[in-house]
Amino acid sequence: MKLNKEEQELIDSIERGEWRAVTSKTELRKYQKAARQMLKKDARLNIRISSQDLKNLQKRAMQEGLPYQTFVSSLLHKYVTGRLIEG
After folding, report:
1. Domain map of the chain by residue range?
2. What percentage of the chain exceeds 70 in pLDDT?
3. Are 28 and 36 contacting, i.e. CB atoms less than 8 angstroms apart?
4. Where are the alpha helices (DSSP H) in 1-87?
5. pLDDT for the residue 69
6. What's the pTM value of the predicted model, to 2 decimals?
């Protein structure tokens, strides 16, 4: 899987031992709640796209090792949060 610069920096930081375990239960609950909210899929989106675009999305998703709907959801999430990096 190809990582963007930010993702690679995080991995490098972890490998250098710069991270510590969260010890506060309050802090842990806060991050667990944030993670659940981010992973929550509570809405459906139906769109019509060209069959060629769909084939290309499926091909790219396969290259990334993801189901294509997860890949599309990830792209949309990155776009709306301003983190989509063209490459």
Report:
1. 22-80
2. 98
3. no
4. 5-15, 25-39, 51-64, 68-80
5. 92
6. 0.56
